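Below is how a single chain appears once it has passed through the pipeline. First comes the sequence as given, then the structure the pipeline wrote out for it. We keep one example in the README because the format questions we get most often are answered faster by looking than by reading.
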Amino acid sequence: MKPTSPVFTGINTTVFETMSRLAMAHGAVNLGQGFPDVDGPLDIREAAAKALIDGPNQYPPMLGVPELRQAVADANRRFYGLEVDPQSEVLVTSGATEALADCIFALVSPGDEVVLIEPLYDCYLPLVKQAGGIPVRVRVTPPHWDLDKTALRAAFSSKTKAVLINNPMNPTAKVFSEAELQLIADLCLEHDAYAICDEVYEHLVFDNRQHKPLMAFDGMRERTVRIGSAGKTFSLTGWKVGYVTGPAQLMDPIAKAHQWVTFTTPPALQKAVAFGLQKDDSYYSGLASELSGKRDRMAKGLAALGFSVLPCAATYFLTCGIDGLNLGDNDVEACERLVREAGVAAVPVSAFYGDNAPTGFIRFCFCKQDEIIDEALSRLSAFLTAANSESA
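Resulting structure:
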């Protein structure tokens, strides 16, 4: 038989799904996949239920219901001072992953180079390859995740079509500094490149930091598309509602890609997200405060157990070094042992890299109920205590 697509044939199942399956099989506390274990605000869910009953439940406009496109535009002005036309510069998608696919397929042609900053969220690489793009990787590494400015400059060339940046960054929990973002902006302008900005964690930023979109930098308004996620902003990851904001000349082909991928997103969910985006500042500050409290709870417990806890400025995730814990020869072995023997699922950070990945770090997800965090810490403590006793 003729071969299937080499991009997807034989590709590994996402590490999140793999660890979640292992967690289910072993009755483990799942701190691997990044989703909250409680649903988002009741009033937003009630708005979705009302819209579902009231209807209509037929195809909504391809670009998204007018209420949500207007709400996204209003949020851009409210939080970042960006003026956005809801009619021509906003697109609603079935999740941020679809938004990424639409942007990459619309902007990248075969042979174009795309700068990617490792560690990568796992869909980036196959999407770029499927578009015929050539990935050019720049690496940040633990424990400091510093962006190598020389390496970044070297990654850009006359062949660079776009840079894909995840800020705040999964899995590193890094918030790019203004200087780092300015360098990326300067390089985009110098090489006439687009910026595809995955900003789904834009409201999950801690310790009084403020997210600044690359689109807000001088010269970047007309060459940047930014992607947001209602799933992350409202702890409703199963809804799969995302949105893209960008200049009209880029949004036109992106919308055409969307037309042939999903075409639309459930209208009741769109209307509820529009309602949610209008929530007052206390919701957004409360979300960040609640998550930072969970971060601190888990970080304190993991540090007491001997994990080297790296700084976490945003997102759902803590990265920890495992040196000295005798969990295995590398992070994959450590995660497999923890899920099978300790009953706690984590994710190996090496899964987010290509070759020669750092192998001494694992990632825990802390957007869980306090009692779940405490149960995971208790299981880890019991396991490590028993393991140390056996090796003594």
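The CA atoms of residues 167 and 176 lie 6 Å apart.

See the next section for the split statistics.
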